[in-house]
Each structure stands twice: as C-alpha cells, then as structure tokens.
Amino acid sequence: MITVVFLGKLADLAGAPTLRLSAPLDWAGLKAALPEALGEAVDDPRNRVAVNGALLADKAALQAGAGDEIALLPPVSGG
Amino acid sequence: MITVVFLGKLADLAGAPTLRLSAPLDWAGLKAALPEALGEAVDDPRNRVAVNGALLADKAALQAGAGDEIALLPPVSGG
Amino acid sequence: MMRDIRLLDRMFIPGTLIGPFTQANPGLGGVCTFVGEVRFDAAEQGGVEALELTHYEPLTLPGMHELADRAFERFDLMGLLMVHRVGMMRPGEPIVCVSAAALHRRDAIDAVDFCMDHLKSAAWFWKREKRAGEWHWIEPRQQDHEDLARWQ
Amino acid sequence: MMRDIRLLDRMFIPGTLIGPFTQANPGLGGVCTFVGEVRFDAAEQGGVEALELTHYEPLTLPGMHELADRAFERFDLMGLLMVHRVGMMRPGEPIVCVSAAALHRRDAIDAVDFCMDHLKSAAWFWKREKRAGEWHWIEPRQQDHEDLARWQ
C-alpha cells in the first residue's frame, strides 16, 4: 500500500488527512484514484508533490511503490 | 557665575568636567577664558554648544548670563 | 555556536528560551529577538477564536534547518534560536520566536528579519483561523511576498 | 500605548523589562527586541576591562524622547521600550535594550532597527573603553554612519 497525505486546503477537499492506495502508482494512476475535483486540484502547478519527504521537480515523473508516502502540498501560509 | 560643562574628550582637555566663570560671557569671552588648546578645540565645527540644554545653531551667537550653564559637546559616540 | 531549531506542539514562554540562549553566547555584542503572537483581530472583522497550524514532518523541520544554515552563511552570527509552534493555538499565544546573537547589531537584526520573512511565506506551514465558528485558510499577504523578495 | 523611555545608572536584566512590556500590549502581532551588551573583544586587541558612558542630562533623555516620537510617527507601533545604561559598565553587561510591539512584524523590526541606528551614532552619549589600564574614547564606526543614512 501507498499512503497519500493531503495538507492544507487539499485535506478539506479530500475529506481526510490521508488515504491508502494500492502500489504501484504513477502520476496518471494517482489522479485516476482520486475524486475528480481533487485530481484536478493536484494538477494545479502551485500544488507540489513529495515522495518520502523529497519534493519532486516534475510531478509527472512520480513513481511510488509499496510503503512509499506521497504528500500533496498546497502553497504554504506561515506563522 | 556661569557653569561650563565639558563632555567627552573635551573634559580630558579641560582636566575637569566643569568650570565656573564670571558672567556674562559671549563666544569670544568664553574662548579667551579657556586654556589655549581648549579654546581652539571648541572652535572645531564638529563641537557643539548648548546653553541651558538648548543647542545653539551658531556658536558665535553665544550669550550667557549669571546662573546659565554652557555645555561644550564633542561628536557623540553611542551605545 | 549555539543553534536551537525546534517545532513545539504546546504553549511556550519566549523569555524562558531567550534567557538561556543569551547566556549560551558569551562575548556577544547584541541579541535581536522577534516573537510573533496569534492576533485577536477586531470583533467587527469576526475576531479570531483559534488558529491551527499544520506542518508536514518530513519537510518542515528539515526546511527550518536549511533556513538556519542559510542564515549562518549569510550573516556573521554567534547563535541562532528558531522555535515555531504547530497545532491549535488561541489568540495571544506566542507562535514563533527567532533570536540571533552576533558581535554586531546589523547581523543580529538582519538575521532575524531574514528568518522571519522566510518562515512567514516560504516554510512548510499551513494556517487556518476560526472566526464565528468557521475555519478559513490563510494565504500569505502581498506584503509577505514583497518582504521575501528583498533577500533575492 | 505603552511607552517606556529610560536612562539607567545601574545593571539591568532585559528579561525583567521585556516580559511586562509584552504583557502591557495585548493584541499585538509581534514584538522585536534588541539587547546590546558591552563586548569583551579579543585579548590580543587588549581586551575591554571597562566601559564608561557619559551623558548630558538636559539633552540625552529629551533626545531619546524625540527619537521615540519619530519612531511612533514613522512606524505603526503599539508600544516602544527604550532603555540605555549610563555610567561605568563591565564586559557582558547589557548597555541598551529597545523593544517595539506592533500589529505587523515589519513595523516592529524596522522600529528597533531605526532606534538602534540613532542611539548608536546620533544620541547624546560619549563612550570610552579601558584597555590595558588606559582609557580610549570611542568614535562611531563608518558602518554606524552608513546605517544611520539609510533612514534619511
């Protein structure tokens, strides 16, 4: 299984802070597994993606396997 | 009498923090009453003069009477 | 070199951090400290009832350490303290404390300014406020982006 | 509006001033504080044994009040604390403490920066240091003049 973590507004859209999906997943596979509104939102270039704490320069290059954690990160809003 | 207060380096030159002189005093009178090295030093445009806590825009306009306090102020060096 | 970078999930009292931090940097010329608190905001704007700060563990603390590294490279510092609250907070509670010790005040003040601008709009935090019972996500203000751009 | 401008002729502990100052400004967004200490300087430079700060009563405190007035005019402040030591000090002792409380951090940080630059080279203080038993008058550094010029 792969854990998907939603931060900020994306957690509201997802209705939960995390989701468990079957491995493996590429970017198209992840989007297909998400509700439509959320799939569109994560495509927004302002939303970043990290795998196991490492930010991806190019989301489309996502490759995640069993035990990996994918984080979907909207723009930050700090202290 | 008029009290003359020397601050900073001027106190070193004067050898004392204050001096009492007879009233009245104008700028020429004050310089004449000071040791030569000190008289020259107070002429330096970087050294300012205050009478009773009010800075003089033009030292040459000094007019002090009995009970007045003249302060001779070298450039500041702060905290 | 004193370096103290932390995320805290409960209330803290800045003075209890700053005293020991200052003591730990003997020979310093100056210490600059900024403490940010959760604002109340006016009742007519629907006063803030609570603030929640979410972070993402694998990115947030490492990001603060990278920011500290950059501050040490950019300024001549003796010590740096950077503490940020996460979780649920009430108005009036401290949310962030940055303190920099240096031989000269310019380095201390600028380092605090630099760290605060980056924490405010370039660190991995997501903030939402509760007003009149409703949660609202907060975006960095235009001013925050302009402040950040000063360092680029 | 909290405003506390003082000359002190004995040792003070900045934390004992900053805590009450922060408490006195409820609803603030941030507090920036700078504390300057008497530096030791390296022994090879003839380490500082003592520092004496002379002031001229009729000008020094009124000058600090004018500086505070200008800070309140220039920045959007809720409170300002400005405390300066005079007299004889030893290395490691606090010599100046400026703290500004504001709704937004930019005002708090800039007000402290502004006050410090002016206290450092445009306030009525004369400073001398004792090194190897000899007293030396201190002049503002070139950097101090450049810092001051930023505000003009």
UniProtKB/TrEMBL annotation, chains A, B:
SUPFAM superfamilies: MoaD/ThiS (SSF54285). Gene3D superfamilies: 3.10.20.30. CDD domains: Ubl_MoaD. Coiled coil: none annotated. This is Sulfur transfer protein ThiS. It comes from Erythrobacter dokdonensis DSW-74.
